Amino acid sequence: MQGDIVAAAKLIGAGLAMIGALGGGIGIGLSAHGAVQGIARNPDAAGTVQTNMILGIAFAEAVAIYCLVVALLILFVF
Amino acid sequence: MEGLGINLGYLLVQIFNFGIMFVVLKEWAYKPILKMLEDRRETINKGLEDARVAAEARANAEKEAEKIIAEAQAKASEIVREATARAEQAAKDVRAAAEAEAAKARETALAEVEAERNRILADIRGQVASLAIAAAQKLVGEALDEKRQHSLLQEFFAGVQDGRVVVLGEDELKGSEAEVVSALPLTDEEKEMVEKDLLAKTGAETVSFRVDPAILGGLVIRVGDQVIDGSVAGQLNELRQALR
Amino acid sequence: MNERKWRWGFNRWLVLLFIVLGFFAAKKYPPISPHVQLPAERLSHDPLFTLPGIGEFYLTNTLVALFLVDLILLAMAFAIRRQTSKGGLGMLKGVSGALEALFEGLYNMTESTAGKWAKEIFPYFATIMLIVLISNWMELIPGVDSIGFLEKVAEHGYAAQGPFLIKEEVAHGAEGFVVIPWVRVVSTDLNFTFALALISVVMTQVIGIRAQGMAYFTKFWNTSTLFSKPIFGAIDFGVGLLELISEFSKILSFAFRLFGNIFAGSVMLFVLGALVPVFVQSMVLLLEAFVGIIQALVFGMLTMTFMAQATQGHGGHDEAHA
User: Fold this and answer.
1) Closest CA to B218 of B189, B165, B182, B164
2) Mean of the pLDDT values across residues C235-244?
3) Are residues B95 and B174 in the same domain?
């Protein structure tokens, strides 16, 4: 019975850890928002803006990835 | 670490594998393709450079051609202008010659007409004198001396008396050209007399004669810019002025 | 302009037929919920060899995938080599032509970012990108992650019937079976992503040192303004230490970004496949293809950008810009 409680706590903890992905999602949305506006105002710079947007998204996504890693660690490692 | 599956052995395998792939791809794929891209870029640049040079040469040739054409046009217009000027000059010359001819012809005609009139006037002079004497005899009622009458008439028409010009005083006139106007043509004797007198009294060198019936009688003598009015018309005019 | 007549063609009937067939197949053999495991599964029961100090070495299913990736890459490289060995400026044909266009685009990107160091940086960029791209796209191949040995496990197993698993829960504690796939996408192995991340970060330092010499280390140990301007100097020093930490966090970030995206993708693929066995997975496959190329591009481009930054040195140093 004790083991079951630990397993349940692990699942809940992993789920809570993934709440951090919220920040990554907001960050990606904001960077895409800015990039699309920039491209709309200056379509000639679309290539550069896209490259920088992808880099920015990658950085913003890193936060969400850390959350995923924590969730995976909780689920499978501990 | 074990839970995540990270294992030094597998990690090393992956790193070595990456190294092998890196070297192989670099040697077999990147080097030839990058070299090809470089060559292609160079070829394109060379082509662009060649095209630029060719375009420059063509532009130069075009400029040259334009210059030549402009020169040719300038020369052509010069020739045309010259030809026009010459033609105009020729036309002007022809017209001037024609005008001169016409003027000469008119002058000749005028001179002929003048001579003709003078001749006719000279012809009628005698008749006029006879008529005047006859009229005077009728008026006066007695016959004057024929000879005296003639001298009076001579004086009336020619303004000369005893070989001298009546109206001419002493040293009044200075000039190089003298013109004598009479109502009827003078006879040669009279002309000679007047001329001699004029030459003696004035400084005139040449004397010309003209006929103008409007002065009625006597002589009008113009020497230089001075005029002596010895005409009957002038005297009548003076009289009219005085009586008024 | 070119108005094509809309009609019920042959292909759409084929698609419909396959959907219906899939429906009946799922009825006959209901898909099982797969077993999710973080480390790569071992395919050999006995270790291939034992290295002293490191441990036993097994053949894992991600290593099989790695060999497949290597084979594909070698085939590409060989095709390019065979075509370019003749020389000349002509266009390459087939796969090599596509790769040439890809390399040209990547090289122009590198050149615009890194300038004269592009020739040094480009091979890392392109190699990382190609390896990651091919291994990511391997998860789109049917059979990867789903065909393999049946293995007896003590818990969460399913009953086996011949060569197939059928959806029949075994009693808890009893012996069941799970599938150990022969091929598992190599990007879902943390060893692979950590190896790439380590190479990327270490080679960034190497290129930085080659570009700037010992001046490169002032980025991490910045004492140049520590005594002339005490307050800002201290801040600069702290920033340098933070840079040092960020180099290590780059390794983690690189490794877990790729791993997380692809692992989550493949888990989503087979969980969705188990929940709705018909058709839905096809649409997720499209998303996964996109994620795969984006992750490859991000991994390569971040490596390239960090390397380019390492060659350019710190903003305050004028000689570094020369």
Assistant:
1) B182
2) 86
3) no
Residues of A with CB under 8 A from a CB of C: 51, 54-55, 57-58, 61-62, 65-66, 68-69, 72, 76-77
- In 3D space, the residue among B203, B118, B209 whose CA is nearest the CA of residue B219 turns out to be B209
Q: Which residues of B touch A73 (CB under 8 A)?
A: 3-4
Q: What are phi and psi of B218, to 5 degrees?
A: 75, -165
Size of the A and C interface in Cβ pairs below 8 Å: 36
Rounded to an integer, what distance in angstroms lies between the CA atom of residue B68 and that of residue B204?
Answer: 71
- The dihedral sign for the CA sequence C147, C152, C154, C158: positive
When scoring A68, A70, A73, A75 by the number of chain C Cβ atoms within 10 A, the one with the most, hence best to mutate, is A68
Residues of A in Cβ contact (< 8 Å) with C252: 66
* Radius of gyration over every alpha carbon of chain A, rounded to an integer in angstroms: 18
Domains of chain A: 2-77 (1.20.20.10)
**Percent residues over pLDDT 70 in chain C:** 85
Residue C118 φ/ψ region, left for φ over 0, alpha for ψ in the -120 to 50 degree band, beta for the rest: alpha
CA atoms B50, B51, B54, B56: torsion sign: negative
How far apart CA C198 and CA C207 sit, in angstroms, is 14
Q: How many distinct structural domains can be found in chain B?
A: 2
What are the structural domain ranges in chain C?
60-147+182-321
B3 touches chain A (CB under 8 A): yes
Pair B29, B99 in one domain:
yes
User: Are the C-beta atoms of residues C166 and C29 closer than 8 Å to each other?
Assistant: yes
Which range marks the domain in which residue B192 is found?
145-243
Confidence of residue C318 (pLDDT cuts 50, 70, 90): very low
DSSP codes, A30-68: HHHHHHHHHHHH-GGGHHHHHHHHHHHHHHHHHHHHHHH
Q: Which residue is it, tokens 């970030």?
A: C253
- On average, the pLDDT of chain B sits at 82
Q: Do B14 and B103 belong to one domain?
A: yes
Interchain CB distance below 8 Å, B18 and C190: no
Closest-approach residue (CA) in chain A for B4: A77
Residues of C with CB below 8 A from A24's CB? none
Q: Are residues B162 and B78 in the same domain?
A: no
B200 Cβ under 8 Å from any chain C Cβ: no
Task: Tell me the per-residue pLDDT of B30-66, one tens digit each, with 9 for 90 and over.
Answer: 888 888 888 888 999 999 999 999 999 999 999 999 9
pTM comes to 0.65
* B 29-48 residues inside an 8 A Cβ radius of C: 29-30, 32-34, 36-37, 39-40, 43
Q: Per residue in C70-90, pLDDT tens?
A: 999 999 888 888 887 776 656
ipTM > 0.90 (yes/no) = no
Tokens of A35: 């990039």
To which residue do tokens 């030094």 refer?
B8
Q: Answer yes or no: do C131 and B21 touch at CB < 8 A.
A: yes
> Is residue B19 included in any domain, yes or no?
yes
B175 close to B151: Cβ distance less than 8 angstroms: no
